[in-house]
Design goal:
- With about 80 residues, the chain is mostly helical.
- Helix content is about 75%, strand content about 0%.
- It contains three helices and no strands.
- α2 runs antiparallel to α3.
- The longest helix is centred in the last third of the chain and has 36 residues.
- The termini are far apart.
């Protein structure tokens, strides 16, 4: 299983592709239990990493729009 630092070395797109691969593999159901658990844990790590990237991007866009004063985003 990849550790969190290795996951952070990936781009968002690489992490998403890996996450999709893990999901597809687990959905097939022919993965041994221990490997499935490892894959599941890696998937959780990748999912959290991707969510953090999206959240940070959203904050950046919100700040940029607010600083320009052209449009405001309401939560």
């Amino acid at each position: 299983m990849k550790n969190e630092q290795t996951v952070k070395d990936q781009t968002f797109d690489e992490a998403m592709k890996k996450l999709e691969h893990i999901v597809n593999k687990l959905e097939q159901g022919d993965v041994p239990l221990e490997e499935a658990l490892d894959q599941f844990q890696e998937g959780i790590t990748l999912s959290r990493y991707c969510k953090r990237i999206v959240d940070e991007a959203e904050k950046t866009v919100t700040r940029m729009v607010s600083e320009n004063g052209e449009e405001s985003i309401i939560d």
